[in-house]
Design goal:
It contains seven helices and nine strands, in the order αβββαβαβαβαββααβ. A seven-stranded mixed beta sheet has the order 5-4-1-6-8-7-9, sandwiched between helices. It has a two-stranded antiparallel sheet with strand order 2-3. A hairpin with a 2-residue loop joins strand 7 and strand 8. The model has no long low-confidence stretch (mean pLDDT 94). Helices cover 27% and strands 24% of the residues. Helix 2 packs across helix 5 and helix 4 packs antiparallel against helix 6. The termini are far apart. The chain has 199 residues and is α/β, with parallel strands linked by helices.
Length: 199
């Protein structure tokens, strides 16, 4: 890992309540014998993020009790029911004063995205002005890297379940796309049918 990459913190958004899954928090869904949140945090770590902040919300106490998240900073988002935007804001806020110059953001419900995609996106970091996104056959997806210069603008526009979508759309000409379709699958675990992806 280069000195530059050491300035990039992983931020895992794992606060959702799983409304379309009958109220089962996605962080606690089992994949290969362990909670999904463990797999996602491990992917950030293995992909090169020295520091990982995990944003928790729905049944946070249960996630803390059941998931092994060693050396991760656990961030409580009391406003998790407001959607992904609130979790993204909580994750970025938690980096204040840490020296992080960028945040590499992953979602807990995408187990097809592993360390290889994380490493590729991380490798495209250049400065606090960086905006980098994984792409799948040219279509923007996750993970996404936000240089610190962009955090205030992202926080201001991250409302509801949109996360940083509006901000990225506004700054599309500044986003570096990194193709990851050959090393990752960008499906979400959103519905009962999607549970078939879990092992």
């Amino acid at each position: 890992m280069t000195d530059d990459e050491a300035q990039v913190a992983g931020v895992l958004l794992a606060a959702g309540g799983g409304r379309r899954l009958g109220g089962r928090p996605k962080a606690l869904l089992t994949h290969r014998g362990r909670p999904l949140v463990e797999h996602a945090a491990a992917a950030l770590r293995a992909g090169g993020c020295a520091r990982v902040h995990v944003v928790l919300g729905a049944r946070a106490d249960e996630v803390r009790a059941r998931a092994a998240l060693p050396d991760c900073v656990l961030v409580d988002n009391p406003a998790w029911e407001q959607g992904m935007g609130a979790s993204l804001r909580a994750g970025l806020d938690s980096l204040a004063g840490t020296g992080a110059r960028a945040a590499l953001v992953c979602l807990v419900d995408q187990p097809g995205i592993g360390p290889e995609a994380v490493a590729r996106v991380l490798g495209a970091y250049e400065s606090p002005r960086s905006l980098v996104s994984a792409a799948y056959d040219g279509v923007r997806g996750h993970p996404v890297l936000f240089g610190a210069d962009h955090w205030p603008g992202i926080a201001a526009s991250a409302t509801g379940d949109r996360g940083a979508r509006a901000y990225l759309k506004e700054h599309v000409d500044r986003v570096t796309l990194v193709e990851c379709g050959d090393v990752a699958e960008a499906y979400d675990i959103d519905t009962e049918a999607d549970l078939a992806h879990l092992e």
